[in-house]
Predict the structure.
Amino acid sequence: MSVSKLQVSRRQRATPYTPRVEALGVSGYSVVNHTILPKGFRRTVEQDYWHLKSHVQLWDVGCQRQVELQGPDAGLLAQLLTPRDLRNAQVGQCLYAPMIDETGGMLNDPVILKLAPDHFWFSIADADMLLWARAFALGRGLDVQVDEPDVWPLAVQGPKSDDLLARVFGDKVRNIGFFKFESCDFQGHDLVVARSGFSKQGGFEIYVDEFSLGTYVWDALWDAGSDLDISPGCPNLIERIEGGLLSYGNEMTRDNNPFECGLEKYCHLGDELDYIGRPALERIAELGHACEIRGLVFSGEPCQAPQFPWPVSIDNDQVGYVTSATWSPRLEQNVSLAMIERDFWQPGTEVVVKAGNDLDYRGVVTSLPME
Amino acid sequence: MSVSKLQVSRRQRATPYTPRVEALGVSGYSVVNHTILPKGFRRTVEQDYWHLKSHVQLWDVGCQRQVELQGPDAGLLAQLLTPRDLRNAQVGQCLYAPMIDETGGMLNDPVILKLAPDHFWFSIADADMLLWARAFALGRGLDVQVDEPDVWPLAVQGPKSDDLLARVFGDKVRNIGFFKFESCDFQGHDLVVARSGFSKQGGFEIYVDEFSLGTYVWDALWDAGSDLDISPGCPNLIERIEGGLLSYGNEMTRDNNPFECGLEKYCHLGDELDYIGRPALERIAELGHACEIRGLVFSGEPCQAPQFPWPVSIDNDQVGYVTSATWSPRLEQNVSLAMIERDFWQPGTEVVVKAGNDLDYRGVVTSLPME
């Protein structure tokens, strides 16, 4: 399928950073949570990959909308919404957490920020989890407010992120632990700053909690980074595949359970803990899951990206499917994420990838992240 | 904001008709319900408007996903999900129906198809109402299956629609009433065919209930229309504004109640009838709503479409905002939809529209649909 133009309307929301990314020559957008997400700038994905691994980038990830739970039953609802055990979660902690339905199907994989014992943000991937959380609370009669606050995450990613952020927020940011957040002053305004982000190159996400503040934060970071080769950027397909970072809607849908997505460690099945989908997960754990996400590399010409999934087979029997793929200039082969059946998911297994248009590639299953 | 490129992935789903619209030179897509919606072909929006009013078009509206309710409590849940009184709804009827949350805020405005007393499709606008419906049923403990079936609507719109459909489905389609549906045979396969669609030019929506059947239905209609000047098409901005057809996310969001959207007649406040948001609607009905959707025409140069909303004012006091606007070649002025405050919503009221970039237009409030 050809890459085609996106029409922007009020329904596909701009972010506070849209004027800046437009001025910097954004080449395209995706739509996430009814909000536009830049997909590239003036460089190729390969150039952008090398830059991300060496320098620092500003990413407009305002599309990572927050579902805010607040009130007496906020803690109870937060726990009901995820199989991850939140009982020992601390204020100031970010928790990557699967959300599932009553059949065990994946609905989302947000990062949960515990702001206070009765106050949470779920920083979500592409699905209206506000509707899920609010309707469940309403049906169950819980005493909790569920809303979308005026919060627009801005990501700073890459090895020079600490140096850049220290210039704007002070040296205290250097001491923020991985998947922890702190409140940091920006021109008299307290902002949540977390060491997190959708790359493996290190960095932060700044939860700008007022639309009109967005360009000021962007500009302060941009100006402070002028001697650090700062660049606008966005989640990089090559880097995220190599790093094994899953994208909801691509690697997983409601048809997948969290075990298939490699998220077993975030599913509490020990002592009694009530959450949506627990009985279903127990059955799946007992029976074993049929497939699991893996890396998969394959040589030959750089693959194009028509519509996924692509079938993965051995001796003409399908044993899985590729969900995302691209060419890696570092590994000098194609890299992909694939859902592979149990008997064949062992790293080293040789397979055939059919990349549309009768193009067959010889590939090998790998662990994640890729080396 | 410039129109920019859309990146397609597994997360932004193709429809059964995507290969056909690609072959016919689709110029861009929007994203609705995680699914791509064509936004134009080889003609301008104006040319497309005249064609739609004279001939017949095939629209890929596979993005109108269905939320299917099935089971003993399906009727109960359907009613809880809308303020519209469904007690006299008949099998074979399509019902345009607001969906609201517990504050009265608009969540969606689907067309509900009553397939059987315990079986409904909600043909939805852009929001994950599957999550809303399923979570509410789960929280409330209802005995109902809520799912997204393998159904991909294909719209046939324009004055020659009856002639075209009769060639493929037989003359029985001519007798299908407005907002009624019947089961029609297509090569041995029963398909739901409804007299409905997102234009005021007449036509049908065919609920193709098997992905792999899609291209066959498309091709049969396309071939049958070769002497009818058939064309690919999509919802036409000029036509829908003139016709007063609202788009969820553009004209209305969770911040609007159904009275503001002109949907009072679909809100039952008479005898006891339980649905989500009823107490909130009663309060709003008692206090009166502050603004309501109207048409608004304004002269001058054809307006461009930067980001909405645009402020509407009288004597420099804001009295509303424009949510969608474009140039009408028929009325030879700009036409728009606007949310206008009570004191100023009387048709004929003169206002000023500020269309970004310090461009002021003199405008007049109108009723809907526009003459």
Remarks:
- The radius of gyration of chain B is 21 Å.
